[in-house]
Amino acid sequence: MQLTRGSLRGRVPALLVGALMGATAMTVAVPALMPQPAFAYAAPQGGYVDLVAKVAPAVVYIEVTKSAAPAEFNSQNMPQGFPFDQFMQRFGMPMPGQPDMQGNPFGGAPEMRGVGTGFIISADGQIVTNAHVVDGADSVTVTLADGRKIDGKVVGADSATDIALIKIDAGKDLPTVAFGDSTQIKVGQDVVAIGNPFGLGNSVTAGIVSALGRDINSGPFDNYIQTDAAINKGNSGGPLFNAQGEVIGINTAIFSPSGGSVGIGFAVPSETAAKIVADLGADGTVERGWLGVQIQPVTEDIAAALGFDKVKGVLIADVTADTPAAKAGLTRGDIVLSVNGSEVNDPRDLTRMIATDAPGAEVTLGLLRSGKPVDTTVTLGTRPEQPA
Known about the structure:
The protein is built from 8 helices and 20 strands. The radius of gyration is 30 Å and the shape is globular. The strands form 4 sheets. It has a 6-stranded antiparallel β-barrel with strand order 1-2-3-6-5-4. A 6-stranded antiparallel β-barrel has the order 7-8-9-12-11-10. Strands 14, 15, 16, 17, 18 and 19 form a 6-stranded antiparallel sheet that branches. 16% of the residues lie in helices and 31% in strands. It has 3 domains: 31 residues, no CATH class; 240 residues, Thrombin, subunit H (Beta Barrel), CATH 2.40.10.120; 94 residues, Pdz3 Domain. By secondary structure, it is of the alpha+beta class.
């Protein structure tokens, strides 16, 4: 007997009956006939689908215009070795020698246009972005996830940390996201960036935390999170999320010889950003604590002479007269080892710790003076305005 495809199901009963009745033995492989489900099974969604659905509505697209003389766009006006030209291209504004948003390669148009990203932190329309996105803006337009375009107002900006706060009036409560604790993140953990690269609209990229505490020489408070999540022009000011959907960083800069993503991006940690945003929301300005000292790192030779097993602490090179430091009795040659119990390893640590406290706050400095440990309490003054 010959069996053809499609004929097995109809002939199986006869073959089985013949075998039971003593007919010629025959072995037949009978396929298992599985019952058909009443509906198609949907596999669980992987990746970051749920996270993105939760947070994406709070991410916005920012467009700014700024009056500009044609000379502002002329690449010949930039000094040789302009740092952001090759090393760090902050994204959102045309770079020297590149076309502006209107396509004029040397800025013949009377106005400059730029794009960036932001995220909503309050239902009444407070939006966080980068200071360089809105710097000098004559107008700010915010496009919400639902497509609505609303005029925005810059509440305040802090160039030293590159954080700005915008306010819009949407007429109803808006979706929001919240800051997480960037002090708890670890190198290697997953992160998700959402932004508007090249003005394309909300785009999602994922990666990991590549490094922490990066100093990229952009200012005195550098303490960046490094990530390999793809970040490009237009992502500036956008949120960097942890796996719980909390904002643990604000995407601010990239390392790129070409201007495109090469997997090295930097974000301002939420620990810094949250404090700056709170200050800006209060009165549009940021006031920082101040000691009034000149400092320098402790060298290996100094550390060895002091018996340190590693280079740590900050040497006070000079104390300015009539400053909080002078009034507290700090002297040249003191070595600062801690602030309020937190270890100080280098000048950047001390600068950041003092500047994040408010003027008038009392801090306890752990010093090494003439080889002996000393604790000194200082009432901080107001840090003078300094160029970013």
